[in-house]
TrEMBL record, chain A:
Keywords: Cell membrane, Membrane, Transmembrane, Transmembrane helix. Belongs to the UPF0718 family. Its main location: membrane. Pfam families: ArsP_1. This is Permease. It is a multi-pass membrane protein. It comes from Phormidesmis priestleyi ULC007.
TrEMBL record, chain B:
It comes from the Bacteria. The keyword Plastid does not apply. The chain crosses the membrane at residues 12-30, 42-65, 86-107. NCBIfam families: TIGR03943 family putative permease subunit (TIGR03943). This is TIGR03943 family protein. Residues 138-253 form the DUF1980 domain. Keywords: Membrane, Transmembrane, Transmembrane helix.
Length: 336, 253
């Protein structure tokens, strides 16, 4: 009973902490449409896969949201025809490469500034490498959920639709009985918002509202499932077991990566969480926690399922885990 | 027929689910249960989110009302990429209602034991910002003591100092009946990362059975150094033990 109550408290504390960030992320990614012309932004990004992946990793600076908020942005990028390298780079690096997170990490690790630089550096490197690797896949559709894939198919069949309003395309959404088009798919809504810049303000606000409601519903549901799993595992697997796995250079990294994946804590606050292990765990394992957690965790995987099929998520997970492990092990063995 | 009714109700489910979360967040704030869940720094954010959710839900409801008055049917299709229609909202609504019904409870001794309260190395996440030796030692809270120990861990340095701290009782499995652990949880962001800090208490009379686990005590006494479980530790020699009600905000920061 006590256990159940602890799980319940944990579950709601995760949610109460995450819902504001989720709302912030959803509102932000919607509002972004008013200020940043994504298509223009995507157009100026380098076409070279490696540079594209790096650029994608860096534009997290424009979107100050944590990992709850970057998934809708990455999904919209893909649906608007952004190269996979850019989208993957963004998806993996944006939670870490943004001003709020870097500032929070700096606050936590003022005594060990190298942790801040290593976190940023490793995240950029890993996101760029994985983005580059994914760009080798020419046809992405087998990797993507059907909604995203069909938008991509549409994009490919109409390669030069930049000047054509998506509101005029057929088969993507529905007309209400009034003259106003009413769209119910979040991603199509967002795509339509791109073209709505010249529309009256009330129409844009209405799209923003619809978009917010849809995304809250969908991402909120996933967040609830992820938090429930995280809370159950945290309560029913004693932390001691997870922690006793690691004092050595190797197992400490593995233990911290496991912890990062289980706890699913938001990247804006995870550095404070990591700080409590600062004197018992190797620096490499702390960096592993801070780099790997924002990329892949139980909550994030739930959100990513709205873009990718499980197979692609497994590749992402395997690559991110191995790269994080290799880099931080090098750090443990040869530097610190 | 029924399918049409369900479809026309689905948008309202969104409205209700989002409003329920707004109500839940504000309810946690007004009933001060938010202290049990998250660090006070994030309370403003949560309250703002609660208000925003209510605004979003209200606007959406207004739009729905307006479109139904003008006999405009809402788009009947739902393109969910992950869940069947209505599932996300239903889940959000159900969880919000559960949150309104069940009261979260602060973590207790079982969780403290699970989270390694008996490890002798107690650490705090936030390093002491200032260090004043002249502070009256009996004004120090539990976490002040732990932070002081972190800066200068030699227990002998504190022997004889007066102490007055509050916390809840944990029975350390490895120590004799004469000892108990006075414990507080510390959180940095939310209950998910709560960790316990504690000081061992040496009872002068009787054994710990008169103080049940999880009961809250205010203990006054003196510091002394004891060798417990093979390690030299700063220990409170209790003079008076007063049972106190569980504080509204049970965590230390």
């Amino acid at each position: 009973m006590t256990q159940l109550n602890s799980a319940f408290t944990l579950f709601f504390s995760l949610l109460v902490e995450a819902i504001p960030f989720l709302l912030l992320g959803v509102l932000f990614s919607g509002l972004l449409q008013f200020f940043v012309d994504e298509r223009r932004l995507l157009a100026i990004l380098p076409k070279n896969p490696l540079l594209g992946a790096f650029a994608g990793s860096c534009i997290g600076f424009l979107f100050p949201v944590c990992e709850c908020g970057n998934v809708p942005v990455a999904r919209r990028m893909l649906m608007q025809g952004a190269p996979i390298s850019v989208a993957i780079g963004f998806l993996l690096a944006a939670p870490t490469i943004n001003p709020i997170v870097i500032w929070a990490t700096w606050t936590a690790f003022r005594d060990q500034p190298e942790i801040v630089f290593l976190r940023v550096g490793f995240s950029l490197a890993i996101a760029t490498i994985i983005g580059f690797i994914f760009s080798a896949q020419a046809d992405l559709r087998p990797f993507l959920q059907s909604g995203v894939a069909s938008a991509l198919t549409l994009k490919q069949s109409q390669p030069s639709d930049l000047n054509q309003s998506p509101l005029l395309q057929s088969g993507t959404y529905f007309l209400g009985q009034s003259a106003k088009p009413l769209i119910t798919d979040p991603s199509e809504l967002q795509a339509a918002m791109m073209a709505s810049v010249s529309k009256p303000k009330s129409f844009r606000l209405r799209l923003l509202l619809e978009n917010t409601v849809q995304e809250m519903r969908e991402l909120g549901g996933v967040l609830i499932l992820g938090s429930a799993i995280a809370a159950l595992v945290q309560v029913f697997v004693p932390r001691d077991i997870i922690l006793s796995l690691g004092q050595s250079p190797v197992t400490s990294i593995l233990a911290m990566m496991l912890l990062a994946g289980v706890v699913s804590i938001c990247s804006t606050v995870d550095s404070f969480f990591a700080l409590s292990f600062a004197s018992t765990f190797t620096s490499g394992s702390l960096v592993a926690f801070l780099v790997f957690g924002p990329m892949i965790d139980l909550k994030g995987v739930g959100l990513m399922l709205s873009i990718f099929k499980p197979r692609a998520i497994f590749y992402l997970f395997a690559l991110a885990a191995q790269l994080t492990f290799a880099l931080t092990l090098f750090l443990n063995l040869y530097i610190s | 027929m029924t399918r049409n009714v369900i479809r026309s109700l689905l948008p309202w489910l969104d409205v209700v689910a989002i409003a329920a979360w707004g109500v839940l967040l504000l309810n946690y704030w007004l009933s001060e249960k938010l202290f049990l869940l998250i660090h006070p720094n994030y309370i403003g954010l949560t309250v703002a989110a609660g208000v925003l959710l209510l605004i979003v839900s209200g606007l959406k409801g207004l739009l729905l009302l307006r479109s139904s008055r003008s006999r405009q049917t809402f788009a009947p299709m739902q393109h969910m990429t992950l869940f069947p229609p209505g599932f996300g909202s239903l889940l959000m609504l159900a969880v919000a209602i559960a949150g309104l019904l069940i009261t979260p409870r602060a973590f207790a001794s079982q969780t403290a034991l699970d989270r390694g309260v008996t490890d002798t190395i107690t650490l705090t996440r936030v390093k002491p910002q200032s260090f004043r030796a002249s502070t009256r030692t009996e004004d120090k809270t539990m976490i002040d003591w732990i932070r002081t120990l972190q800066v200068y861990p030699e227990p002998d340095a504190y022997t004889g100092q007066k102490v007055k701290v509050q916390g809840f009782v944990v029975y350390p499995p490895k120590l004799s009946e004469q000892y108990l652990l006075l414990t507080r949880f510390v959180i940095t962001c939310c209950a998910a990362d709560a960790y316990p800090v504690s000081l061992p208490v040496k009872l002068t009379t009787g054994d710990r059975k008169s103080y049940l686990p999880d009961s809250w005590l205010e203990i006054e006494g003196q510091m002394l150094t004891e060798t417990l479980d093979g390690k030299r530790q700063l220990t409170i020699q209790a003079k008076t033990l007063k049972t106190i009600p569980e504080p509204k905000n049970p965590y230390n920061y």
